[in-house]
Design a protein that fits this description.
Distance between the termini: 20 Å
GO cellular component, one term: cytoplasm
Shape: elongated
Number of domains: 2
Structural class: alpha/beta
Mean pLDDT: 95
EC number: 1.8.1.9
Cofactor: FAD
CATH architecture of the largest domain: 3-Layer(bba) Sandwich
Largest sheet: 7 strands, mixed
Subunit structure: Homodimer.
Radius of gyration: 21 Å
Catalytic activity: [thioredoxin]-dithiol + NADP(+) = [thioredoxin]-disulfide + NADPH + H(+)
CATH topology of the largest domain: FAD/NAD(P)-binding domain
Low-confidence stretches: none
Bound molecules: NADPH dihydro-nicotinamide-adenine-dinucleotide phosphate
């Protein structure tokens, strides 16, 4: 089995940027794209804060450009899903089911995935009115009423997007204030199709073959109301995709990978981390891309010294 100089796991802005830098450094990187190639930006509409795109860029278009740029310099990309890793000795082992690959260094850029509420009806009605992706499923809710949970930038961005189709979007916020930026709050609050229910928590989604209503608890008054709805969207943040690294790479209590200060180095020499998988603070496409660049530069230095 050939030993690669570097394997990049993940295909968001961090992974592709690492690919661009590593391939330009002649490290012939292999990038394993994961199940959802392109990462979270594939489920976004317009990205307005990517530098160099003053008119905004659609998330999937940005990812296609990054992928093309990575391939252009020689990044080999395979569409597969890593099921197991062995970082106990070098070369490191990466398994994809029965398939095994070896590498002298690894960049972990596996990103983060949407969180769910785990309430009654949520799992059962997924794809039948329950969704965590407005850009994927919003189209199905033309002239329908939607309940959406969350108070961050993602929730309001999704709520605004859903108003293109829905007749009404009710946003459930568990506190009496939003976490979202002031600019996003202003946009959502001035949209007449969006209303807010404060101190409100979804308790159950009612319906058998499709969403019919949502049982909502007011956590101040303990009152429970039934709100009829056709759709139920969840936008309450993300969980880092680190399950396969448990016991090998150091993580914080939420599962985000730890790295050395001012570095992408993990607790294992030769294993680096970039993007949302190790960033509980910024979680922006541009910061992910920046850390992908850092990881590739650190890999280059590491390989030169072994
Ligand atoms: P955030 O962590 O910022 O917000 C999560 C929201 O969901 C909070 O309002 C939180 O409530 C709420 N929440 C969490 N768990 C539950 C639960 N169990 N029940 C009900 N509500 C819950 O995540 P986002 O995904 O919104 O944003 C992540 C990062 O990405 C942020 O830094 C954000 O700024 C950025 N972002 C930027 C965008 C842009 O600039 N265009 C677009 C989208 C995201 P509480 O506040 O009470 O904790």
């Amino acid at each position: 089995m050939d030993t690669r100089k570097v394997i990049i796991i993940g295909s968001g802005p961090a992974g592709y940027t690492a690919g661009i830098y590593a391939s330009r450094a002649d490290l012939q990187p292999l990038l394993i794209s994961g199940q959802e190639a392109g990462g979270q930006l594939m489920q976004t509409t317009e990205v307005e804060n990517w530098p160099g795109e003053p008119d905004g860029v659609m998330g999937p278009d940005l990812m296609t450009k990054l992928e093309t740029q990575a391939r252009k310099f020689g990044t080999e990309i395979i569409t597969d899903f890593v099921t197991e890793v062995d970082f106990s000795s070098r070369p490191f082992m990466v398994k994809m089911g029965e398939k095994e690959l070896k590498a002298e260094s690894i960049i972990v850029a596996t990103g983060a995935s949407a969180q769910w509420l785990r309430i009654k009806g949520e799992y059962e009605l997924k794809g039948k009115g329950v969704s965590a992706c407005a850009t994927c499923d919003g189209f199905f809710f033309r002239d329908k009423k939607i309940v959406l949970v969350g108070g961050g930038d993602s929730a309001l961005e999704e709520a605004i997007f859903l108003t293109k189709f829905a007749s009404e979007v009710v946003v459930l916020v568990r506190r009496d204030e939003l976490r979202a930026s002031k600019a996003m709050q202003h946009r959502a609050m001035s949209n007449e199709k969006i209303s807010f229910m404060w101190n409100s928590e979804a308790q159950e989604i009612v319906g058998t073959d499709k969403v019919k209503a949502v049982m909502i608890l007011n956590n101040k008054t303990d009152e429970i109301v039934k709100v009829e709805a056709d759709g139920f969207f969840v936008a309450i943040g993300h969980k880092p995709n680190t399950d396969i690294f448990k016991g090998q790479l150091e993580m914080d209590e939420k599962g985000y990978l730890k790295h050395l200060p001012d570095s992408t180095r993990t607790n294992i020499d030769g294993v680096f981390t970039a993007g949302d998988v190790s960033d509980p603070h910024f979680r922006q496409a541009i910061t992910a891309a920046g850390s992908g660049c850092m990881a590739a530069l650190e890999v280059e230095r590491f390989l030169a010294n072994i």
